[in-house]
Amino acid sequence: MRPLLLLAILICFHCVLRKGFCSSEQDKVLSITAVTQEQVILLQNISSHNETTLWQPASPSYITENTPVHLFVQSSSVTRVTELLNTHRFSFSVLLENTQQLIQEQTRNITTDPKSGGMTYERYHSLEDIYYLINKTSQEHPDMTKLILIGSSFEKNPLYLLKLSGRRGPVDKAMWMDCGIHAREWISPAFCLWFIKYAVIFYKENPDITAMLDKMDIYILPVMNPDGYKYTWTTNRMWRKNRSVREGTSCVGVDLNRNFDANWCTAGASSNPCSDIYCGQYPESEPEVQAVTKFLRAHKDSIKLYFSMHSYSQMLLFPYSYTHDQIPNHSELFDLVKEAAVKIRRHYKNVYHFGSGAKTIYLAPGGSDDWAYDQGILYSFTFELQDRGRYGFLLPPNLISVACNEALAAVKIISMRVLEKLHE
After folding, report:
1. Where are the domains positioned within the chain?
2. How far is CA 136 from the centre of its chain?
3. According to the CATH classification, is domain 116-422 in 3.40.50.1220?
4. Which is the catalytic residue, given 284, 286, 288, 384?
5. Could you tell me how far CA 207 lies from the centroid of its own chain?
6. pLDDT digit string (tens) for 105-119?
7. Domain 18-97 belongs to what topology?
8. Is 384 an annotated catalytic residue?
């Protein structure tokens, strides 16, 4: 008996070292639906607990009746949360049984040396590896690429922009694409890298990407939130905001997609620094947003297309998100995202919802695409990539290629239609 007792003590001690407790529970993601207003209020309170993290929607204030809520629950709170849900007769199910296993799968190749040639675009990359890859691309394709430093983050990580161009003279049109504005949305930077690789490989091979590069410069910002992205690799996989700090609060970070000067900090954003949708101290308070807006203001006469890549929920969106009012060219942009969604469904058998942000999801002021639109970039879009919640932010590496091909199809069809319109 003594060896068994000793083994039990060692196992529990190992648990304490790792988690601070000994439990058979794992971190889980629950899908919960509130059917009454009383349940809505209770679910808002549950999801505000510091051992849970909302996946969908982005804030407790967005929780409504009869809309599924995806809630990440730490192992130490799983029993308590599920007992509360059962006591109050919630309808819920377990989406993910063991999130740690999926996180390990996403980061399995973290130790791969990018210089060894073992890197692929069908896995997720650390911030350092992303910097290495875009530098390597600029060195290997000097006739098509230019690396531009547009600023730095709060923690002084560089904000690198890669300019893609065809092998031709100067042009007067450009396209912008940013990825990784929200730290935990790893498929977003993965897509920017995928797009860069596709562009340099298939230029003069694929007619669409060739036309895009011959007629436009394409500016790619692979990671707009490098501090937050790095933090998701080292400390908290579920982190959303940047990592800025300020006096008067112990809470860290600003939601960069609530910090643009587009109806800033109205309904759909929060002035609470502890909120995941905290809008910041003032519009463009964050150095990451300042760097992007400075560059876009300087190039707004040439930039005709704007794409911001997010996840998850499979949606193709356009302004406005800060109001339910329609933009003047609503019908035009609606037709563009509809055509893109139809193409994705036809080729990849996957459904993407589409429409203006406020009407398709919810009010979200201070967003980058609304700001870009108000600057005169009339073809501004936000994409929510895979999936619909089966894996959420923990999309396995083996699904990267399908997710990126879907997004690529949408970017190409919209870009080609816009180029046609600009040449009419």
Report:
1. 18-97, 116-422
2. 24
3. no
4. 384
5. 29
6. 999 865 455 555 545
7. Alpha-Beta Plaits (3.30.70)
8. yes
